[in-house]
Amino acid sequence: MEEEAFILGPFTPPVVTLLGLTKIGYGEMILYVAGLIALITFTATWFMLQRIQRRTKEINPYERLGDVERFVATCQILFLVIYSLLFV
Predict the structure, then answer these.
(1) CA distances (Å), 74 to each of 50, 71, 77, 79, 81, in order?
(2) How far, in Å, CA of 44 to CA of 51, rounded?
(3) pLDDT digits 0-9 by tens, 50-75
(4) CA-to-CA distance for 85 and 18, rounded, in angstroms?
(5) Reduced to 3 states, what is the DSSP secondary structure of residue 9?
(6) How far apart are CA 61 and CA 73, in angstroms?
(7) What is the domain range of residue 29?
(8) How many domains is the chain built from?
(9) Cα–Cα distance measured from residue 42 to residue 81, given in angstroms and rounded to the nearest whole number
(10) What are the residues whose beta carbons fall under 8 Å from the beta carbon of 19, sequence distance 6 or more?
């Protein structure tokens, strides 16, 4: 996940260099370059995580605790997570 941080961070060396050489704005760079790279990387990571978890489900099972409740996401929690990812 370090690649996304280097591509999305406004003051990282690759972004500063790209913005300086191409004379485009940060918003344009995110929209046309970094956003697509991050989306592709996040998508590939998601699918690989699912595959790895399916393959190792029986090999390394998690210990089930008796007093643990199942977490159910509500719209408010999802909103807070999305808001914090976008604006913080």
Answers:
(1) 23, 10, 5, 9, 11
(2) 11
(3) 999 888 888 877 777 778 788 777 88
(4) 23
(5) coil
(6) 24
(7) 2-87
(8) 1
(9) 16
(10) 25, 26, 29
Close Cβ partners of 26 (under 8 Å, ≥ 6 residues apart) = 10, 15, 19
Task: Locate 77 and state its tokens.
Answer: 């929690």
pTM comes to: 0.53
Residue with tokens 């999802």: 78
In the block, residue with structure tokens 């998690």: 62
* Residues 6 or more apart in contact with residue 41 via CB below 8 angstroms: 3, 4
Task: With beta carbons less than 8 A apart as the criterion, state whether 1 and 45 touch.
Answer: yes
First and final C-alpha spacing in the chain: 18
